[in-house]
Design goal:
With 389 residues, the chain is an alpha/beta fold. It has helices spanning 63-68, 86-89, 98-103, 119-123, 134-152, 211-231, 278-303, 314-318, 341-351; strands spanning 2-9, 24-26, 36-41, 44-52, 55-57, 106-112, 157-169, 172-175, 190-192, 198-200, 206-207, 240-251, 254-264, 326-334. The protein is built from nine helices and 14 strands. Bound molecules: adenosine-5'-diphosphate and magnesium ion (MG).
C-alpha cells in the first residue's frame, strides 16, 4: 500500500476578502511545483514553519487542475521536451488512480481538514461542470474507461459499477442510500469475512450505469445525510461520508474486483475550544478518536510498518486501511485565514508526517484477483448488468 498526502489551500470567500491571510504555498513560480506549506509560528510571528507534502495546490487551483494535477506550469510544459518527460508535467493526484483501479488495486481518497476549509467542495463540488469535485470526476473517468474496455474487447470483458454510500456518525454506520426514516438508532453492524475483510452488514449496493444515474443517486443520498443530521440537531460536518465504488471486471471465468473509496471526513477542529454540551462532546470524542486512528494508520503505512492499527476505529476497519494492496491519497484542505491558525497548525502536524513517505510507484504491477463469489454486503439491489454502451 502506498500513501500520498497533498495539501489544498482554498481561496478567500467574498466575505473574507479583507481578512488576514497567513498560509501560503512555497515556491509557486513558473516551472516549479510547490510541495511546501508555510505558516507563522503563533508564538513568534517572525518565525515560519514549513510542512512538506507530495504536492501543494494553491488558492488558484481549479477543480479540474486538482483532479488531473496539471494545474500550474511545469518544467518543459508546452515544449517539444514535454513528450519525453510526461512525468515531470503532472503532479499526479486523483485521475492517475484510474489506471491502478482498473488493474485491480483498491484506491482510497480522503479529504481531511477543519470545517469550512473546502473538503466537501473538493470531494463533491458544485453542480456546474467546472465546479464538479473529485467524486463526480472520478465516476466519469470510471464510466469512460469501463466503456472503452468493453468496446476494445468487443464485449469479452464486461465492466460493472456498483455504489454504496454511508456515513459514520458517533461511531455508528448509517446507509445513505436509504431514507433517514429507515434508520435504526444503533446503525448497521460490521461483519468480518473469511478473507479478513470487514463489511457493513445490510448495506445497500446500487448498480450504476452512467454519470446521470450516479448524480441522481448522489444528490438524493446527500439530502438524506442532511435530513438525518438535522433530525439529531447536528450538522453533517460531524460525520464521515464514505462513497464506495465497486468495480467488477469479468472476462470468462476471471473476475477482477476493486474498489474506489472517497471519504469526506468530519471536521478536524479542536473540539475543546468549541461547543461543550453533552451531545457535542460525544460527537467530538468519536471524531477525535477516528481521525486519530486514521492519522496513525497513514503514518504507519508511510513508514512501511508491518502492523497498521486499522482495527482501532470503525472507519479504518471498514476501509481495511493498511490491509489491502492499494493506494491512498489524503487531501488536506486548508483555509489560509488567521482565524483558523491553531486548527490549521494541528492538521498540518497530523498530515505532514507524510513527508517521510517515500512514494512507492506501483503502476506497472498488475494484480489479478480471482474473487470467490461471497454474499458480502447482502444489500438491497446488486448490479447484474454491465455498463450501458
Ligand atoms: P468543509 O466541507 O471543509 O466544511 P466546504 O467545502 O463547505 O468546507 O467549504 C466552505 C466554503 O468555502 C463553501 O462555501 C465552499 O463553496 C467554499 N470553497 C471551498 N473551497 C473552495 C475553492 N477551492 N474554491 C471556491 N470556493 C471554495
Ligand atoms: Mg463539508
Amino acid at each position: 500500500m502506498s500513501v500520498r498526502v497533498v495539501a489544498r489551500i482554498r481561496p478567500l470567500l467574498e466575505k473574507e476578502l479583507d481578512k488576514d491571510v497567513i498560509v501560503r504555498a512555497d515556491g509557486v513560480e513558473p516551472g516549479k511545483h510547490s510541495t511546501v506549506v508555510k505558516i507563522p509560528n503563533p508564538k513568534n510571528e517572525a518565525e515560519e514553519f514549513s510542512f512538506a507534502f507530495n504536492g501543494v495546490y494553491d488558492q488558484a487551483t481549479s477543480q479540474e487542475a486538482l483532479f488531473t494535477a496539471e494545474g500550474s506550469p511545469a518544467p518543459f510544459h508546452g515544449t517539444a521536451l514535454s513528450s519525453f518527460f510526461p512525468r515531470l508535467i503532472t503532479r499526479r493526484s486523483v485521475q492517475p488512480l484510474l489506471k491502478p483501479l482498473f488493474q485491480g488495486y483498491d484506491v482510497t481518497i480522503f479529504a481531511y481538514g477543519v470545517t469550512g476549509t473546502g473538503k466537501t467542495h473538493t470531494m463533491r463540488g458544485g453542480l456546474k461542470l467546472a465546479d464538479r469535485g473529485v467524486i463526480p470526476r472520478l465516476l466519469s473517468g470510471v464510466f469512460r474507461r469501463g466503456k472503452k474496455i468493453m468496446k476494445d474487447t468487443e464485449g469479452d470483458t464486461t465492466v460493472r459499477v456498483t455504489l454504496s454510500y454511508y456515513e459514520i456518525y458517533n461511531d455508528k454506520v448509517y446507509d445513505l442510500l436509504e431514507p433517514p426514516e429507515k434508520r435504526t438508532p444503533s446503525g448497521l453492524p460490521l461483519r468480518a469475512e473469511a478473507n479478513g475483510r470487514t463489511v457493513v452488514a445490510g448495506l445497500s449496493e446500487r448498480a450504476c450505469g452512467d454519470l446521470k444515474d450516479f448524480e441522481k443517486m448522489y444528490i438524493e443520498a446527500n439530502n438524506n445525510r442532511v435530513t438525518a443530521a438535522t433530525k439529531l440537531n447536528a450538522h453533517s460536518s460531524r460525520s464521515h461520508a464514505i462513497l464506495r465504488v465497486k468495480l467488477t471486471q469479468t472476462t470468462g471465468a476471471t473476475v477482477r474486483e476493486s474498489t474506489a473509496s472517497a471519504i469526506d471526513l468530519a471536521g478536524s477542529e479542536d473540539n475543546r475550544r468549541t461547543d461543550n454540551d453533552k451531545e457535542r462532546l460525544v460527537e467530538s470524542a468519536a471524531i477525535n478518536k477516528s481521525l486519530f486512528v486514521l492519522s496513525q494508520c497513514i503514518d504507519a503505512i508511510g513508514r512501511g510498518d508491518k502492523r497498521i492499527p486499522y482495527r482501532e476505529s470503525k472507519m479504518t476497519r471498514i476501509l481495511s486501511l493498511g490491509q489491502n494492496k492499494g493506494i491512498t491519497v489524503m487531501i488536506l484542505n486548508l483555509a489560509p485565514l488567521r482565524s483558523y491558525h491553531l486548527d490549521t497548525l494541528s492538521s498540518l502536524n497530523v498530515s505532514s508526517r507524510a513527508k517521510r513517505i517515500e512514494v512507492r510507484e506501483i503502476e506497472n504491477e498488475v494484480v489479478f484477483k480471482q474473487v470467490p463469489r461471497t454474499n458480502s454486503g447482502s444489500g438491497t439491489t446488486t448490479a447484474r448488468q454491465p455498463l450501458r454502451p
